Amino acid sequence: MAAEGKGKEKDPVNIVHQNAIFCETVHKEQRHQKLYTNFGTNPYKKMHALSGKPNSIHDSGDGEEDSEFLKVYRRSQQLPKEKYPVPQTEAQEIGWDTNPLVATRRDDTRLHHPRNHSEITKFMDAFWKQKEQQSLHGSD
């Protein structure tokens, strides 16, 4: 009985009608809007000259570069090991010396462990590849 009191369900959404309503709304907006392409300055407000845009060729002046600024900027982009002879903080001390203490040798099995495949790992590798292919083609 509670379902009868709710009333009639809404009709499904009709995409064609929604598109027609949208087109009508756009045409109404375009009728009442005016596109301004010519802009001017307010003659009653005082203008202040500012510096040119940094990325503009026309506003950059005569092309001179500030060598001091470039030097400071290049230094700021360097790694701390290139900037300072010794670490400046305790956190820098941890990774300051990155050179290995012992030269690595690929033929020494104590420190070098290449990936080895046994019969079971080869079988499971093929099994997982087959399972991935089935899941890709089974979802179509």
Automatic annotation (TrEMBL):
Residues 79-100 are annotated as: Disordered. It comes from the Eukaryota. Keywords: Cell projection, Cytoplasm, Cytoskeleton. It is found in: Cell projection, Cilium; Cytoplasm, Cytoskeleton. The keyword Acetylation does not apply. One of its GO terms (cellular component) is ciliary base. It holds the Pfam family FAM183. Coiled coil: none annotated. This is Uncharacterized protein. Signal peptide: none annotated. The keyword Magnesium does not apply. Its main location: other. PANTHER family: PROTEIN FAM183B (PTHR33865). Belongs to the CFAP144 family. It comes from Amphimedon queenslandica (Sponge). InterPro entries: CFAP144. The lineage of its organism: Eukaryota, Metazoa, Porifera, Demospongiae, Heteroscleromorpha.
